[in-house]
Amino acid sequence: MISLISKDFMLIKKYLLFTILYLIAFPIFIYFDGDNKYYLINLFVPFFSQAFIIGKMCYIEDSLEVKKFIKTLPIKSNLLVIAKYIETILILLVCQIYCVVINIIVYKSVDISIILKANLIIFIGILIYGILYLTIYYFKGYFLAQNSFVIFFALIFVIDSLLKKYDIKIESLINKSNSILISAVLVAVAVLFIGYFVCIKLMDRES
Asked: Angle at Cα 122 formed by Cα 25 and Cα 203, nearest 5°?
């Protein structure tokens, strides 16, 4: 398993440098842009990092030559899926820890409990997106999976519009409703298991 994960990251090592530069540059840009937009860092740092890295891995694996090579390896399909899941979760965890550190150091006026709760919801939301992305990838390939970006940003736009329309503050909503956190965790666990078995079925069908 470790060798599989290491192999995936080695294949896209030149793109990791770009991701690191993005992790540094984006928070600096948001900070100097002003208006206390810490939530943009918490959302777009993990999302773009996860989407870019996993997307590049899938792009490389989606080539006919690589697909043929993978089929020759003595590796079960469930291990390949688990590796991608671990990579997705690992990227999100690293990014979320990075975001929390930035929030604590830079945005000292924001309650840390709100930041942690908000980041948990963001983590779960992007994780669900990542699972759906992988499911589409194993079903129809890389290029169709990339179209899921449109769905993600459309959903963000709808949520943002509703919050503005009804004048709902994200901080107060998160701070008052623990049931949202519990529901989000349960949904994430369900999607994780369902997505796992669907991806295995799709891989077995292709082989």
From this structure: 100
Q: What's the pTM?
A: 0.85
CB 83 within 8 A of CB 29: no
* Phi, psi for residue 126 in degrees, rounded to 5: -70, -35
Taking residues 49-62, what's their average pLDDT? 91
Q: Are 86 and 6 in contact (CB under 8 A)?
A: no
Residue 174 burial (10 A CB sphere; 0-12, 13-18, 19+): buried
Q: Count the alpha carbons within 13 Å of 111 in the hemisphere toward its beta carbon.
A: 9
Of 26-35, 78-87, 145-154, 162-171, least confident by mean pLDDT is 162-171
Instruction: Compute φ and ψ for 119, nearest 5 degrees.
Output: -65, -30
CA distance 196 to 194: 5
Packing angle, helices 38-61 and 2-11, rounded to 10:
100
